[in-house]
Write a structure and sequence with these properties.
Length: about 250
């Protein structure tokens, strides 16, 4: 089976600033790829380039067998907006700061994608949303507004919102780093359950406990490159991750 996602020599520049220099990454179905590395390494930029929230500057991205961008001789070609939109729908992102619609309830937040993007009838979307709120343990909070929820609850709603898109690949950008320490576990548990169920994911995290428990492959990013890749045991070593690779203790950026 071909990989869900193949990234070849992807670069991203903001003007003169070369954030990603040459990224190669392949993610198989059921794989959980964790990206670690210092703040400013370009991890968020890479995730945003994968689903075209940002346009890469060069390279090739293939998702579910479809080219989203590619080099064609001297030209860099990007797939038409409809193709990118369809890909983004199958590759939803979970953000550090949740990014819920504050004026919508939990269930309305989860329904939004199925209604607007997948064009489901509202009743059907509501059922889809209920299913996924239940999956993240948030059934009892369907009619709560985000500001009535804790950070951990908001993030679980955000995960349900991604799940409602029937993702082929989920992108999670530091999903636990904005949370009070006491709320990290509930979100970790949800993410761990998803990985155990075989969800394909790319996860940026400084949370080494989470990374160790979910990663199939760990990729260390620095200087616009992936500088090392391997199984978590090999890459992170024993109990002390800083033994092999410097990993910042504090979550930042
Ligand atoms: N929209 C942007 N315009 C200009 N520079 C940006 C933009 N987004 C990110 N950068 C720069 O790209 C670099 C990598 O940022 P980021 O991807 O957020 O890193 P990380 O997630 O690894 O901390 C930083 O130097 C940041 O300032
Ligand atoms: Mg980041």
């Amino acid at each position: 089976m071909s990989p869900v996602l193949v990234v070849r020599q992807v670069a991203k520049r903001y003007g003169e600033h070369e954030v990603l220099r040459s990224i190669d990454l392949s993610v198989e179905k059921g794989e959980v790829a964790c990206l670690i590395g210092p703040s400013g390494a370009g991890k968020s930029t890479l995730l945003r380039c994968l689903n075209f929230l940002e346009k890469p500057s060069q390279g090739e991205i293939t998702f579910l067998g479809e080219r989203l961008c590619a080099e064609d001789g001297n030209l860099f070609r990007i797939a038409p907006p409809r193709t990118l939109q369809a890909a983004r729908a199958r590759m939803p992102m979970v953000f550090q700061h949740f990014n819920l619609f504050t004026h919508r309830t939990a269930i309305e937040n989860v329904m939004e994608g199925p209604v607007i993007v997948l064009r489901r009838h509202r009743d059907e979307a509501r059922e889809i949303a209920r299913t996924h709120l239940a999956r993240v343990g948030m059934s009892g909070f369907a009619d709560h507004y985000p500001d009535q929820l804790s950070g951990g609850q908001k993030q679980r709603v955000a995960i349900a919102r991604a799940l409602a898109m029937s993702p082929a690949l989920m992108l999670l950008d530091e999903p636990t780093s904005a949370l009070d320490p006491s709320l990290v576990r509930e979100v970790e548990t949800v993410i761990r359950d998803l990985s155990a169920e075989g969800m394909t994911m790319v996860v940026v995290s400084h949370d080494m406990r989470l990374v160790r428990s979910i990663a199939t492959t760990v990729h260390h990013c620095a200087g616009g490159h992936i500088t090392a890749s391997g199984a978590p045991d090999r890459l992170l070593g024993g109990e002390n991750p800083s033994f092999n690779i410097p990993v910042p203790a504090a979550a930042a950026g």
